[in-house]
Write a structure and sequence with these properties.
Radius of gyration: 18 Å
Order of helices and strands: EEEEHEE
Oligomer: single chain
Strand order of the largest sheet: 1-4-3-2-5-6
Structural class: mainly beta
Largest sheet: 6 strands, mixed
Distance between the termini: 39 Å
Helix content: under 10%
Number of helices: 1
CATH class: Mainly Beta
Strand content: 35-45%
């Protein structure tokens, strides 16, 4: 059994990972997509039960530009019950790439609501 400490490859420096607290890095708040728009990125964190309505906040590192943000930017936005259910049903975990698209609208109590779909990478 080896008892020596593993040595990193030459030229490598140990990387530190950010905590799951978005206050530790520069995350920008964005609105959920409008009809025909898609926000796509690597899922960094899911923070359940936030705000007045106990809603989940999703944090992503963008893998495609979205609005005024470029690929690689860190963004967060409010999830929905439907998005949360799709994440759970598909066992989506931190580190996976997802896309959230607004595919249309529907009406509830005389008010238009946006319909979101979750896409996962194969």
């Amino acid at each position: 059994m080896a008892t020596e400490e593993a040595q990193p490859p030459e030229g490598f420096t140990k990387a530190t990972a950010p905590s799951t607290n978005s206050d530790d890095y520069d995350t920008e708040w964005v609105e959920r997509p409008e009809v025909g728009e898609i926000v796509q990125g690597t899922l960094l964190d899911m923070k359940p039960e936030c705000g007045d309505y106990d809603t989940t906040i999703l944090e992503l590192r963008l893998s495609a530009p979205y609005g005024d943000h470029d690929e690689g930017d860190l963004v967060c936005f409010w999830s929905t019950n439907g998005i949360d259910a799709a994440l759970e049903e598909n066992d989506v975990a931190r580190g996976e790439e997802i896309a959230v698209a607004c595919e249309g609208t529907f009406e509830i109590d005389g008010e238009d609501r946006r319909e979101f779909a979750l896409y996962t990478r194969d």
